[in-house]
Design goal:
The protein is an all-beta fold and 100 residues long. The chain has strands spanning 8-13, 16-24, 30-49, 52-71, 75-83, 88-96. It has no helices and six strands.
């Protein structure tokens, strides 16, 4: 976890599965994908104060919609729209991908 909060501990478990359709640009050149999936998130935070600790557990079930591009079967640019049925969040990500 990257945080500017001192004296805090954090860990989480976030398994997810997406089912997506893939439209290749050309053989071995990457492509576009779009799909949906679900996830479960569980997190535990511990904040340490001079007079003791305070711990918080957080859990949610989520529905995800995802779309993105694989460029040259090396780079991935994706956008995820996620809801836990009480709110909505989104994420734009850049990463490395290896398609087999």
């Amino acid at each position: 976890m990257l945080s500017e909060t001192r004296d805090a501990r954090y860990y989480s478990l976030w398994p997810y599965a997406h089912y997506a359709f893939f439209l290749p640009f050309a053989p071995a050149k990457g492509g576009w994908y779009a799909g949906a999936g679900g996830s479960y998130m569980w997190a535990h935070y511990t904040f340490i104060f001079p007079d003791g600790e305070d711990s918080i557990n957080s859990a949610s079930f989520n529905l995800d919609l995802v779309t993105g591009f694989n460029i040259g079967n090396i780079f991935d640019i994706s956008y995820t729209l996620r809801t836990n049925f009480t709110g909505v969040s989104n994420k734009l990500s850049l990463g490395y991908v290896k398609r087999f």
